[in-house]
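TICKET #2291
ISSUE: user wants both folds in one file
ATTACHMENT 1:
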Amino acid sequence: MRIRAALALALITVVTFAYWGWPERLGVGAKADEHVASPKSEANTLSLTASQLAAIKVGVIEARAFPQEKDVIGSIDFNEELSVQVFTPYPGRIVDLFAKLGDNVKKGQTLFTIDSPDLLAAESTLISAAGLLDLANRNLARLRDLYKSHAIAQRDLEQSVSDQQAAEGALRAARNNVRLFGKRDVEIDHTIAARSPDPILVVPCPISGQITSRNAAPGLFVQPGTAPAPYSVANIDTMWMLANVSESDIPALRVGQAVTAKIDAFPNRTFESKITAISPIVDPNTRRVVVRSEIDNPTHELRSGMFANYVVQIDHPVRSLAMPLDGVVREGDGTTSIWVTSDRQRFTKRTVQVGLQNEGYWQILSGVSAGELVVTKGAVFLSNMLTVGHVP
């Protein structure tokens, strides 16, 4: 009996040592414990704890409208079709100025006057022509009386008639010549009656608008078409919006497309317009094309040179699946990915293709279906966990 008891005790000792001692020395026990503590997960899949779930948001992926737009940079400028440089029509020295920079002026309002030698010469010719006509009229009347008494030949009377008609033609030509200087008939009649030429030439404003530049001073000698113009006037009820568009974007633009502008001076407002013209010339230095649109400016608050950002509506909005920006991760290789789930516990990383971006959303072109559960906030958090190999 004692021998059987001793053998049984020895057998139990060997089995116990074999179970607890040998595997540990061989490393089997350590691996088993490690496996229990950190089970391996599937590739690109994470299981989150409750505290980790609190750091993300999950939602259903849905469709939304994405406008098809082009963002361009430009500025505000005067409407060149409603602006003009006011030159003197004839050379002379400026006598008086009647408008300052920024003044609102009306069409026909006097801007400045000049002492014009050409006007002096034209009025002198007018006075001379009027005197010759008066002499020809008196001579014709005298010869008609003589002809009635047969004191002169008919040939002399006919010559006098011809001289009188020539004098009338010369006076009409002289009057028309003075009218070219802007003189009215009443002023012309006064000059003839007074026999005194007035060399002061009045230069009126050709359009209603605002004085946008003044380069005139009394005593300055000015000539037609010689820059700078004494005055520049622009009607600022409408302004031009000029955008500098890359030549690669021009095929997408057409006259009539809607334009929305944001101007730095008015950050909380938008200005609506349409494309009215696209320049046929590409700037050889910048490789850009000027695209023009018109905008109403009834309160005259827009000023030439203001910086603006333009959004051109190039086509109708498209409806597509959308993801918030915080739900999309840009990978180092240039691809984009999102995280999807079916039970809100296990999350799988999935590569998607993105398109347009608008108002905090990416357009998703492929890689996910409508109605799937996706991480809408905290996607970067999950990607970082996967990168560092943190598996709960």
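ATTACHMENT 2:
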Amino acid sequence: MAKVGPIRAILFDKDGTLVDFQRTWGPAARAVMLHLASGNRAAYDRLVAASRFVEAGQRFLPDSPLVAEPTSVYGALWATALGRPANAEFFAEIDQLLCDATTQHLAAIGDPKTLLSFLAARGYRLGMFTNDTEITARAHARKLGLDKYLEFVAGYDSGFGAKPDPGPVLAFAQAVGVPPSETAVVGDTVLDLAAARAAGAIAIGVLTGPTPFAILAPHADALLASPAEFATWLDSR
């Protein structure tokens, strides 16, 4: 682990960090793919293959584009699978369907409300960013009771760019008045940590998502088993 400086602000990734990606997105994406396939088994099978989805366990393989990429990436693959145009209208349809389905199946990792409450009480400025849509991020935050602690929420469509672009990290730092060098980004994918590094922030990896240790470790200033360890890690530095 690299030696890092003071931390005054913390930007959390959503899926795989605060939200259980497999338990939430597995059943949600299956329902959406079935809906889009409209009873056509061959079309559904093409969606499953493009998504790197394991139907038997309702889970995604680590290299699935849905693990970390924005809708424009996997949406283009879905469009090809369905023979539909890969345009903004189709991507908006996907986003709305997934917003409804993931909110319905939403499952947290541990107790993020207690974690964020504890960090906020200690004076840390908190935010959340995702390559999901902002409206979905806010819906998930409300359902989990996190919204009152978050001073900043950004999705791929919030105007700051999508990970690994540093834009959301820089926007968060500016919004809370803390330099990027004193901002920690906590996430479970290489894209999360790459966005942190590109912004000059501190990259904290967590192993609660689909990305294996060996892939995540080289990109992290610190690597934790779960976000629940983050408060203890802050005290131990």
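RESOLUTION: both attachments delivered.
EXTRA DETAIL ON ATTACHMENT 2: The two ends are 11 Å apart (CA to CA).
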